[in-house]
């Protein structure tokens, strides 16, 4: 196991992510909410566009939390919670705000999990695309 220190996600990183996700959503004509969590699941940044549906704030946060806890994009987990899927009972087995809809993406630095971003307000595919565009911009 490596003991090399990895810089944590900062508020500056979080602002870059929020800005990039919102810019991608604006280009698509979509109003969204964006949530960024650190590795401990603590809120680093949140922004809901004025025109975004109110529930998008909750969905963006739950998507980020799910991506963080399961260390996987929520888009990759949708089938796992369907009947017969590996995590079929997980959404109801835990008293946690998990949401298995595309739009949550874990954040890594030097191979280590440092947080997650969640986007809500567009279609699931749009939300996933906006989140991955933000991750790409962070580098």
Give the key terms.
four-stranded antiparallel sheet; globular; alpha+beta; 37% helix; 4 strands; 139 residues; Beta-Lactamase
Describe this structure in words.
The structure is a single chain. With 139 residues, this protein is of the alpha+beta class. It has one domain (11-138): 2-Layer Sandwich (Beta-Lactamase), CATH 3.30.450.150. It has helices at residues 11-27, 55-70, 90-93, 124-138; strands at residues 33-38, 43-48, 104-109, 112-120. The protein has a 4-stranded antiparallel β-sheet with strand order 2-1-4-3. The protein is globular, with a radius of gyration of 14 Å. The model has no long low-confidence stretch (mean pLDDT 91).
Sketch the major β-sheet.
Answer: 4 strands, antiparallel
CATH architecture: 2-Layer Sandwich
- End-to-end Cα distance, whole Å, is 24 Å
H/E topology pattern: HEEHHEEH
CATH class: Alpha Beta
- Number of E-state strands: 4
Query: CATH superfamily, please?
Result: Haem-degrading domain
Outline the fold blueprint.
Elements: H1 11-27, E1 33-38, E2 43-48, H2 55-70, H3 90-93, E3 104-109, E4 112-120, H4 124-138
